[in-house]
Amino acid sequence: MDPEEFRRQAHRLTDWIAEYLTDPSRYPVLAQIAPGTITSALPSEAPARGESFDNIFADFEKIVIPGITHWNHPGFFAYFAITGSAPGVLAEFLSAALNVQAMLWRTSPAATELEEVTLGWLRTLLGLPSTFEGVIYDTASISTLHALAAARERAVPAVRSLGLAGRDTVPRMRVYCSDQTHSSIDKAAILLGLGQESVRKIESDSAFRMRPDALANAIADDRSRGWLPVAVIATVGTTSSTSIDPVREVAELCRRESIWLHVDAAYAGVAAMVAGYEWILDGAADADSLVVNPHKWMFTPFDLSVLYCRHMDVIRAAFALTPEYLKTIEAAPVRNLMDTGIQLGRRFRALKLWMVMRHFGADGLRARLAEHMRLAQLFASWVDASADFELVAPVPFSVVCFRASPASPIADADILNERILDSVNASGEIFISHTRLNGRYALRLAIGNLHTTETHVRRAWELLRETLSSLRRDG
């Protein structure tokens, strides 16, 4: 593509993206197509000859866009609602154009040092001590994987060189988390060779928080049977209900027992920067590691997860490996990102977080997070006041878990709520998700989008009530 053609197409794309980000609600929030639609609309083999970008973009609009579920839509209330904000999108443009590979300081000094500076800003906003060193990965699953790898490195002598298999001197290992913890913990245990059976789920209380007494009993029981406790995961903002584990109590127990504590604050951790919410990370300063995802609730385009660790030297001991062709002449204080994880290649992710933080400013970020939590409380108040719906979990942040009450002719509450979910999602106006709490099917409404206003939340409530009335009427 020659420079003039590139310039023309770049203007075209930026105009399209600007229009899209301004009003993504002109599309149905949930893709209204059948499985296989995209596949059947595309040829089975790559073209033998190159095509014009005009033709390619025409197919993007005709074939790809109808198959997009629009996470930027103001009616997107499913999972953890996110936004790819304009400054973050522009930063992605620049990152793609620069195309740097930040494995070494030498291969991109700016990418390495900007990451350190930006994560220092975020650390201060979250109230974490400077003893925590940060590194950017793609997702919380990978951040947590590295935290547990560090815990394993500290707990098992020579595990890096000797591994685990065939070592009679290495006992079975335990990783503890609540019964509300994200499934990435199980996956990490599988990948690290600990096995899924090494993950012991601790009972949660009536507010879906880990019980420290049950944790202490489980650790004592395992030690008596020859297990080696390696790590505990405490969660600030669980995936289903956004509950908050008692981090300080868990941290004190881990310190007494010499067990690695990892705090999963992937969704809710950023709320600690909001006045009155600092308490959610109480005790986190005593943790060994903590993950927070700016791509979840800090308006940073997917993907960007931050792992903070008080023992980054242990992570480097687990993963640093420098073949001859990657050796450089820089002095020891130089930080090479390739030493902080399994991957060699590193994208320039810090650029978008840096631009997002500069664009919104700390006060702007706090105000938007606070507004999302206000809207969640407002929605929860409507549910609480309704005779037809009920809350099924506390609402500490911006997610509301609720369900319709059973009534004739649909007596089964789970079936009723599943039908409500399917119906409102088919409308194209909103998209909500579900979970199970105490065995009961629950609807989840998550607020986290920059475009979402009280008008959108009120419309979601209206649609839910209309749908329930229609289902009861039709049976």
List the keywords:
about 475 residues; alpha/beta; 7-stranded mixed β-sheet; 4-stranded antiparallel β-sheet; about 10% strand; globular
Instruction: Note the quaternary state here.
Output: single chain
Count of individual helical segments = 15
Q: Write the H/E string, N to C.
A: HHHHHEHHEHEHEHEEHEHHEEHEEH
Unreliable residue runs? none
Which whole number gives the mean pLDDT? 94
Kindly, what is the distance between the CA atoms of the first and last residues, rounded to a whole number of angstroms? 59 Å
Structural class: alpha/beta
- Strand order within the widest beta sheet: 1-7-6-5-4-2-3
Radius of gyration: 24 Å
Query: Which term fits the overall shape?
Result: globular
Biggest sheet details: 7 strands, mixed
Helix content: 40-55%
Q: Would you count the extended β strands for me? A: 11
How large is the share of residues in beta strands? Answer: 5-15%
What do you see in this structure?
This protein has 475 residues and is an alpha/beta fold. The chain has 15 helices and 11 strands. Strands 1-7-6-5-4-2-3 form a 7-stranded mixed beta sheet, with helices on both faces. A 4-stranded antiparallel beta sheet has the order 8-9-11-10. Helix 10 (247-257) links the parallel strand 4 (228-235) and strand 5. The longest helix is centred in the last third of the chain and has 36 residues, at 350-385. The protein is globular and about 65 Å long. The N and C termini lie far apart (59 Å).
